Description:
Largest sheet: none
Number of domains: 2
Organism: Penicillium brasilianum
Subcellular location: Membrane
Region (Disordered): 1-20
Main location: membrane
Transmembrane segments: 60-86, 98-120, 132-151, 157-177, 189-208, 220-239, 288-313, 325-345, 354-373, 379-398, 405-425, 437-457, 531-551, 557-578, 590-609, 621-641, 687-714, 734-753, 773-794, 806-826
Distance between the termini: 41 Å
Amino acid sequence: MTQATSCNNQHGSSPADWRKSDMKQLQAVDVGATILNGTVDNLQVQSDEDRGVLRKIDTFLLPILAFTYMIQFLDKSCISYAALWGMKTDAHLVNDQYSWLTTIFYLGYMVGEFPINLLFQKFDIARTCGIFIILWGCVLLSMTAGHNFAGLATARLFLGILEAGVSPCFVLLTAMFYRRSEQPLRTAIWFSMNGVANIIGGLIAYGIGHLHSALPAWKFPFIIFGSLTVVWGFVFLLVTPSNPTKAKWLSEREREIATLRVLQNETGIDNKTFKMEQVKEALLDVRFWLINLLCLANTIPNGAVSAFAPLIVNGFGFSKFNSTLLGMPSGASQVLALWISGYLASSFKGIRHFLMIGGLLVALLGGVLIFTLPDSNRVGRLLTTFVISLTLLQSNVAGRTKKTIFTSAFFVSYCVGNLIGPQLFFEREAPRYPSGFASMIACFAAQIAIVSVMYVINARENRRRDLLTANVSEDNQAAAVSAGLSDITDVMFLVSLNHDQYSIFEWPLTSKKKQGPIVWAPLSEEYGRRLIVIATFPLFATFTMACALAPSWSPFLGFRLLTGIFGSSIVALGPGILADIYRDPKARGWSIAVFMGVTGFGPMLGPILSGFISPAKGWRWSFWIALILAGATFIFVLQFPETYEPILVKKYASETLTWSPSKDSQNSKQNNRPWRSILGEVLLRPLYLLFTEPVVAACSVYLALCYSIFYMSFQVFPYIFQEVYDLSPGQCGLVQLTIGAGCVLTLPVYWVYERLLPRLVNIPSARNKEELFRLPLACLGGPLFVISLFWLGWSSHVDVPFAVPMIAGIPFGMGFMCVFIAILYLTRS
């Protein structure tokens, strides 16, 4: 923040002042300023010039990054081919020592991560990376001399340390040469070389298996790939530029254009100063921890698959030769998925989180199938390995030091995950490795939850930034460039914009806040109804699938809990959404009555479907059908519009209106509230009302009691009609339709009540539309609820026809709905 302030003081508040900026101070901060010839004039770049520079960067830089990334993956994974061709026997590896060879590599990777990133900031990044490439090629060659665990482990440790810089280096180079919108596709291209390496490695390993030589076959992967790496390291050292200002294959004008293209990201080019304030900012950023958790959960499966893929395929019953070839489709699937995801992320705004969730769902499905398919179905188990790796991660932050901390921590998490992954595949469990695949499934599910949380946080942050910068003119692009050159972080940059660079809009906020369930409804008031519905629905579907695949009672119980948590969002938000749409209390009352009637009837269909399907197809099919219905519904969920007025007003304001300068300070503070205070206010407000408002507490306790009895009926009805009356599960499901019928019959009761009660009690017409007018419905529903329970209990006897207790479901459903509609309408949801 100090930098942002000093930048404003130096350059003034007008665009003209920015154009007259003295670049000397900025040149001392960021190397990108040296190419601008002392001015930030002429920021506009012609589209044909821009395309020409981008084409040159893609032609010269992208193939270098892609080929290098392919080589590094071959180098670290060729040990799996060596293991297939006899290394484990010749090196006398026993028990889990092979797993430890994979783990030790990532231990070295983790140790070298932060020091190497600091070297990248202090020295020429491309030259430093080139030296490391040559060195790790030499280490790979030395592995041919390893004849025991100690020798191989030492070489793998140093290989990990030296390879630790390549991924962070490429992330930084991509950020230095490409705009944000261009980065996902380019990152996907060079990252997809992991898949290409799988294909090439499989072909080479297949050829090695057919060699007839006095030298053991397992040494050839190290010789071939190590020699190639050393030669390529010298090429990389000579031809790779560290930033656009050093790209010899660009003319002077093209270097200027390349620099300006990236500076408009407001992230700068390269800065050699390490700033502790950016370290603190990174550590206090919730995204820092979420990204690292996501990376950890992502790389646990990655570490296992990269080390054990050929052995896993071999364990399916395929020969060693075929195992090397059958890993190739997995690489092709990675390339295809990454290129498609990268293209979509570059072409369509705001879909990166959904791409990640989509890839994770596919990977989760693959993990579950490979875990559950029988040994006899070896082709099916093989095909599932091709979809395990379909995930994508892309993130960008501003500030060179903050970028270094994010990148270093990210790859430390990458190492920790890869350390853990191989240790979950126990030699004694070969070839199925149940513990390993169960862990992979859990990691994929955890990633889906983390990405959903990241989506909510990032969506709010983007709205805040859009509001602050909605009306920044083209004249103020110079301010953005100078902020990037000043090495201001993404948070600091917003503070650095002064009064003349944006105006402040004041929007009206409704004073009456709705009271809803403890999590989803309050969160929807901060982030919008649409966001919560779209974020929770995929998780509901995911855990429904997990229920269908649960191997035992314990995980099934956990998955059912999570299914209920995420599936409750639409029920929690439904009354609030209807209250947003219908302003007239009568219309609102009818809409809530219909909504609750359908909500009550829905749970009755489940016992019918499961009652007829489970005996014939097995209980898992009940969840598969629910998943199919959820998948079909998701198409409509994506079209769900925003209905909450404050969110709509903010969106309208950011697009059309201007900010009020008189409210600058007040609105700036409001938009910069830390997420902790927001979550505290949003999530603690319902608890505060619950413990301080007697009416809220009474209604909540009453509803909780009614709900517990309502869902208890799902256990009571099957017990009564199967044990006492010996009905089949399907017939028992049909019996429960009477409860749904009672819920639906609440609608005509509500219609009669709405018209008769005002006349009977002589309520003035002015009060007919008040909320309290609906409360007496609970006085009707409560007794019906109790009467139906006594009716059901007293008539459930073998000598009494089953139709008598069955009919008790009608007043049971009517009583429950009457209570629910009355209290929901009283609180206005």
